[in-house]
Amino acid sequence: xxxxxxxxxxxxxxxxxxxxxxxxxxxxxxxxxxxxxxxxxxxxxxxxxxxxxxxxxxxxxxxxxxxxxxxxxxxxxxxxxxxxxxxxxxxxxxxxxxxxxxxxxxxxxxxxxxxxxxxxxxxxxxxxxxxxxxxxxxxxxxxxxxxxxxxxxxxxxxx
Length: 159
What we know:
alpha+beta
C-alpha cells in the first residue's frame, strides 16, 4: 500500500466573505514600555480590521513624506502560518481596496527591518497614482500549459 503524498496545501479550502473583525485583547507584555504600548493601542484604534476564513487584514490611512494619501495593509493568516502567496496578496488588495489600485511590498534596508511575526505589509497608492516601477505592457497571464511551452511552470487559476 502506498502512502498518499500530501499536497502541501496549508490554507483552508474556503476563502469566505470579508467581515469586520477586531484585534484580540491582550495585556501589555513586560518587554514593551507603557509609552510603546499606548502608541500601539492608539494605532489599533485608527485601523479598520477585516477577517475572512483565512486572513486578518488591518487597514490604516497614512500619508507619505510628500503628503500623498496611502492605505497601509497589515496582512496575516488567522492560523499564524507564513503566507507569501502572491495571488493571495493580490486578491486581498483587489477585494478590500480595489482592482485598479497599485500596491507595493517593501524589502527594507536592514536598519529599518520590521519582522516581528508572520505578518505582511502592502502600501496602496491613491487611485490613479501609478508606481514608477512595474509592468506597463497590459495584462499578461499564462495557463500551466502555456507556461510549459516556454519551459516555465504555472499553477492553475482557481476562484
